[in-house]
Amino acid sequence: MTDVDGTESWPTGRLLSTAARLVEHAWVEALAEMGLTHAGLIALHLLDAGPLNQTDLAQRARVQTQTMSRTIDRLERQGFVERRPDDKDRRRQLVSRTESGADAWRKTRTLEADLFPATDDPAGLRAALLAIISSTSGARWSNAD
Question: What is the CATH number of domain 37-133?
Answer without folding.
Answer: 1.10.10.10
